[in-house]
Design goal:
The protein is of the alpha/beta class. The chain contains 6 helices and 6 strands.
Length: about 250
Amino acid sequence: MHCWLRSAGVSFVVMKRFLLPLILVLTGCNEITASKTQREFKKPVLRYLNDVLIKKDFGAGDGRVVRWIESPEVVLMEGSPEHRKLLNGVVDQLNGALKGTPMRLRSMERSTSARFVEVFMVPRSRFGEVGRKCGFDPPPNQDGFVWVKWNTKKKYIFRATVLIAVDRLKAGMLQHVLLEEMTQALGPLGDTTVTPDSVMYEKGRDHGKAPMLGEWDRRMLDLLYGHLKPGDGWSEVEAAFARFWGK
C-alpha cells in the first residue's frame, strides 16, 4: 500500500514535468489567437466610429463630436398623415437605441422649444425654397438632406432641418432615407463604407437600403449619448469604445 502511493506519486510528478510546458504553450497560443481576434474585431468598428462621429460631410467641427445636450422635439412641418406615421416609427426606433441614455426624442405637432428637429417631407423641387427659408442652400440632386446647426465653440447641436423628397422615393427607400437623415440629425454626420448594415452606409453609387438601424448604429448612439460629450475628440471616442462598447 505504501509502495503504491509512492509509485503513484512518482508517476504524477513525471507527468506534471512533461505536461506543464505543454499547457503553457497551449495557453500562450490561445491568448495570442484571442488577442489577434480582438484586434481584428476592433479595427472595423473603430473605423466605423471615426467615419460617422469624427468625419463630417460638411460644415465646421471636423475632428470633434457634435451632439444635442437637451432632448429635442421632432416636428413634421410639411407632410401627409402617412408621412407622420412613418416619422413616428423612425422616432420610436431611435428612442429604442437611446433607451439607456438621458436622451429622448419627442414627436410634437408644433415646436414649444428653441431646440427641435424640423422635418419637411416634400417634392424635391421644393428643397431650394424650404432651405432658403430655413437659412441654407441644399445641394442639388439629393433625395434626402439634413442641415444641422451647432455651437462652433462648445459643439452642441441646437437645431436641425431634415428634407425628404417624397416624390423620388418608394416606400422602403423612403423609410431608409428618413431614418438616415434623422440619425444624422443627432450628430453622427459622416457616412461609412465599413458595414452595409449601417443606415449611414455609402460606397460609390451604393447609398445603402437599410430600413432599420444596424447593430453598430444602435451601439454608436448609446455610446454617443451615454458616454461622450460635445467636443470630444478621437482619443475620447477610443476610450469610450474600450470601456463601454457592447457592455
